[in-house]
Amino acid sequence: MTCSDPFQQPDSSFNTLEGWTWVGCYGGYYLQSNLLTDEGFEHGFFTRRWHGRGPDELVGYVSAGVSVHRPQQIHSGIVLNASVAARAPWPEADGLVSDAGGQSLWVCGADCTPVLIADPGSGHAAACHAGWRGVAAKILPAAIQRLESLGANREALLVALGPAVSGERYQVGTEVVEAISAAIPGDADRLKSEAILRDQHPGRHRLDIRVAARLQLQSAGIASERIAHCPLCTVGEPDLFHSWRRDQVKAVQWSGIVSQAAD
To answer: Is the dihedral of CA 234, 238, 242, 246 positive or negative?
Structure first.
């Protein structure tokens, strides 16, 4: 759904991003990955400008006539079928996989990576909240395995990694690096060269959590050309995104995807 918004036009924050599209509607603007859109998957990565509006309202801007599913996020590797997350109290988890058609799956974050996964073959979808604890707990391989149990082919999956804290702005300790490294077997050299950056303070490191998530996906058999990586940094774009590391305030933005699978 694309519509013109006469009240809130894009400003300099809405730069053109290769492979990504800003969608304007009467409520504001949200971001879509062309990789998912080209296969007909309705989805959206929302910004802080939608603050105060949760999935029950946001879903209307992405799709129509679909059910809403979301977890109570706990920074885990737990992935559940969406049908168990259709009403409050929301089950504790950080990932949902569709088990019917017309389900919108939602996760929120304020520096962690929102990950939306689509299977063009079966029409199933998944949404994961992947911070460093989630990646360390192998949440993305867990989501892939659950999708496979529903008939998906992992080599055909499409993945969009949404806005998150960039490596330059994310300082972590050695214990975090060790936990991430243990969760991405066989890619230690690439992890050190691509996801873990130098820090001037002894015993500290800079972690690019989206690159770590991408490497975990590639290690699980997802080709790099099937992974869209949004370059926007939540810390570095205060007009667009809430950031816990920048503001130390509990506020989030939502991301969601709609399944196509038949009931």
So the answer is: positive
